[in-house]
Every structure is written in structure tokens, then in C-alpha cells.
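Q: Here's a chain of 126 amino acids. Please give me its 3D structure as C-alpha cells.
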Amino acid sequence: MECPKCNGELETKEHEQVRLERCNRCYGILVEEHMLTETFAQWMSESFLDVGSPALGKKYDKIDDIRCPVCDVQMDKIEDPVQTHIWMESCSKCGRVFLDAGELTDLKHETFADRFKGMLKGKRKK
């Protein structure tokens, strides 16, 4: 499957009970919603699955008009309700979520600094 952000190849990665697709070029992650929840339950799963640099993820975060590589429909632009600086894309048809490199780790570990990041980044345009 082709990555919707960089045209790299999405490869299946597994750790414990978590299974997702990760790009071999930009390290973005395509994950089913229930698997996203499972990553939070698995200790250190993000260390094995979210291996891309947050700086690289920040570069690709600006690309947000993407199509779901599974369903070929325009993905919705969403943000985490708690950590509003984390911008993701979600497929309304299959429910998969696309996270840029570093976002899975950031999403799992909320810190005090995340509040400031949200204020600096601002609201996402839909």
C-alpha cells in the first residue's frame, strides 16, 4: 500500500497485540482506531512502532489533504481533544487514523509542555 503523504510503502508492523501499517520513508502510521487504543494499553509499544523522528513528522504534518490508502476517500482532519497540537487524519469509511512520525508517542505521553505546544500551534483549519 502506498503512503498517502510521501508515496513511500506502508508496511505491516506488529508488537504484542498491536498491528499497524508504517511508512518505510516518512515513518507515518496508519492504524485502525481499536488498535490505537490497544497501543496505549501495551507498555512501551510506541518505542517499537513509532520509530520516526518527530522533526520528520512535523515536516509531513503540513500535508493534510490526503486520501485513505485503503478506501480511497478523502480523510477528515482531526485533532486530539486533549493535546490539540496533535493533528491527525481519519477515514470516515474504515475508521483508520493516520499519524505522522512521533505523534503516537506524543499522544501516549501527555506532558505539561503539551499545553504550551497547543497554544503555540493554534487551531486546525478543517
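Q: Can you summarize the key feature?
A: The beta strands are 10-15, 18-23, 29-31, 76-79, 87-90, 97-99.
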